[in-house]
């Protein structure tokens, strides 16, 4: 489970469908997208272990090993604000 983290940052990692960008903040995962060219300029912070575990689980899921990922904490407040 991803617990509250004090910092925010971006973790870029390889998956079977391409590079992904995972953004996190104190309330959990904020965004997961295919990284693409815009990731080159992203400022990267050292990802906490819980973020790296979430990325590993997502990578396995995308490789064909189903995982509900339900216990990963998601920051829905930030996601909702971006949609406005």
Overview of the structural elements:
By secondary structure, this protein is an alpha+beta fold. The protein has one domain: 2-Layer Sandwich (Double Stranded RNA Binding Domain), CATH 3.30.160. Helix content is 26%, strand content 26%. It is built from two helices and three strands; from the N terminus they run βββαα. It has a three-stranded antiparallel sheet. The longest helix has 14 residues. It is globular. 14% of the residues are buried.
How widely separated are the two ends?
28 Å
Q: What is the H-and-E element order?
A: EEEHH
Largest sheet: 3 strands, antiparallel
Secondary structure category: alpha+beta
Give the domain tally.
1
Find the count of extended strands (DSSP E, 2+ residues).
Answer: 3
Q: Can you give the mean pLDDT?
A: 83
- Tell me what portion of residues adopts beta-strand conformation: 25-35%
Give me the CATH fold name.
Answer: Double Stranded RNA Binding Domain
Query: Unreliable runs, pLDDT <50, ≥5 residues?
Result: none
**Radius of gyration, whole Å:** 12 Å
Sum up the overall morphology in one term: globular
Topology:
Elements: E1 9-15, E2 18-25, E3 28-34, H1 49-62, H2 76-83
Antiparallel strand pairs: 1-2, 2-3
Please give a quick description of this structure.
With 84 residues, this protein is α+β, with helices and mostly antiparallel strands. It has helices at residues 49-62, 76-83, and strands spanning 9-15, 18-25, 28-34. It has a single domain (9-83), classed as Methylated DNA-protein cysteine methyltransferase domain (Double Stranded RNA Binding Domain, 2-Layer Sandwich), CATH 3.30.160.70.
